[in-house]
Every structure is written in structure tokens, then in C-alpha cells.
Amino acid sequence: MAELEFAILGTGGGRFAMITQKRRTAGIRILSKDVNIHLDPGPGALIHSVKMGLDPQKIQTVLVSHAHPDHYTDAEILVEAMTRGMSRKHGLLASTRSVLHGNKNCGPAVSRYHQRMPKELIELRPGVDFNIGEMRIIATKTVHSDPDAVGFRFETSDVGDVGYTSDTEFFDGIGRVYRGVRLLLLSLLRPSGKPWRGHITTDDAIKIVREVNPELVVISHFGMGMIFAGPRREAERIRSETGIHTVAAKDGMRLRVGKEITMSIGNKKQKGLEEFA
Ligand SMILES: [Zn+2]
Ligand SMILES: [Zn+2]
Description:
Blueprint: E1 4-8, H1 15-20, E2 28-32, E3 35-39, H2 45-51, E4 61-64, H3 69-72, H4 75-82, E5 92-96, H5 97-100, H6 112-115, E6 120-124, E7 129-132, E8 135-141, E9 150-155, E10 161-164, H7 174-178, E11 183-187, H8 202-212, E12 216-220, H9 224-229, H10 231-242, E13 246-248, E14 253-257, E15 261-265, H11 273-276
Parallel strand pairs: 3-4, 4-5, 5-6, 10-11, 11-12, 12-13
Antiparallel strand pairs: 1-2, 1-14, 2-3, 7-8, 8-9, 9-10, 14-15
Bound molecules: zinc ion (2 copies).
Residues 66, 68, 144, 146, 167 line the site of one zinc ion (ZN).
């Protein structure tokens, strides 16, 4: 695996960013020579995959972190794409008990019909790990209104590790979960000073980033309050408080983790970190 790519299909999070599509809610595609994963396919995942030229029929794994609609609504459609329109048992669906079976708050979110077609089904809890090609994926702890929700740590031997917090509020030890990752994808629904149960604010993000100390932080999953506050401004606040490169994700941004971490968007050619900061 010489390079690992994260195509950010959507940067919106929470109900109103989703309903209005002020920011897309299509999740993240993770790509390398032997990996094709769609992570958190919310509304728009199918459409924006096609629009970005990322063939949904090439997906090998659908990963859903929890049973909230901004993370799961297109999961069934992507399972259909992954299984040749439900004609061939293929691929992996990995998700939480809430998504697969339901808990007292939410779910189930993927029908039994769709759970039957992937070749493999994995139920995720913090600590569960599995391999896809040369990549090891570990489900991580969150504290969220779906009590089964997980985040992820993606580990590779040649380009290092990447963390994805998914939706969580701040908890003791969250920094340890992602320590040592090169790239931290931080779901930051709320700006500084506007806390909301089950989510972090920029103030919490600063504490987490200090503990994790990654090469690059990319904030995403913006709620309406965050969109109005200005994600770029909040990213700059994290950067100035921690000294760590922090950028606000944009819909359609592609992050490439190789020897260096580079970014591009649309047809613009690859850019250095400073130009996005
Ligand atoms: Zn969310
Ligand atoms: Zn959520």
C-alpha cells in the first residue's frame, strides 16, 4: 500500500445540515490498491459517489459507525451496488448492534434482506478488529446518543495510521484511542462555546488534538451552528492553540496519505497543506 486515499464525499452532520444539504452528507470513501471502503453512507452517498467518478460497484466494504440517518441512509443502496444488484454474495458489511439489530434508542437501520447479501457481516463494538487487505481496522469507543456507536482506527504498516472519531462527546481517554495516528479525521458538529450532548466542540477538539498530536487534523461533519460560525475559523483556532496543522474539510476534498499527506479538490491540482489551512 503505497498510498491511502480518503475521498470526503460529504462534510455535513446533524439534522439541519442534512435536511438542507448546506453541506453534503455522503460519507467518506477509503481507497488504496486493495481497499475500497465506503464509510458512513448518509443521504447522497450514492449520488456523490457517481458524480465524483467513484464507481459504487467497486465497493468491497460498507462501514457504518452508528444508527443515525446522516451515517446510514444509503447503506442499503451501496450493499446493492457491492453485490451486483443483490445477485452475488460479495463484500463485507461491518456495523454496530444498533444498525444491524437495533437497541432501545435506535435502529435497526439495514434490512435483513440487505444483511444477507454481503459475504461477511461483522458486528462492531469498541475493540473489535479485522483486516481488509493490508489494512487493520479497529472499532473505537465513543460516547454518543446511540450507545452502540463506534469510531475507527485504520492501521497500515507502510503509511501509518488514521483515526476517525465519528460522533462522540469528549471523554477521558479519547486522546489515547487515537494517539500516534498521522491523520485525525475529527467529527466536529459544534463550534467553540456551543456544546451539545453527544458531540464535541472546538474547545474539546483542542484538548483531543493536543493529546493525539497527529501530523494533520481534518475537521468535518459540520452542523448548522458550525457552518454559520465558519469551519475555517474554527480550524484556525485549533491550529493556533495546538500548533498542529488543522484544516476544515470541503465537500469533494481528497486526502492522500503517502510519504506526505496531500490534499486536492475538484480539478485543482494537488496542493500543499498551507494553501488549505
Ligand atoms: Zn452524525
Ligand atoms: Zn450521531
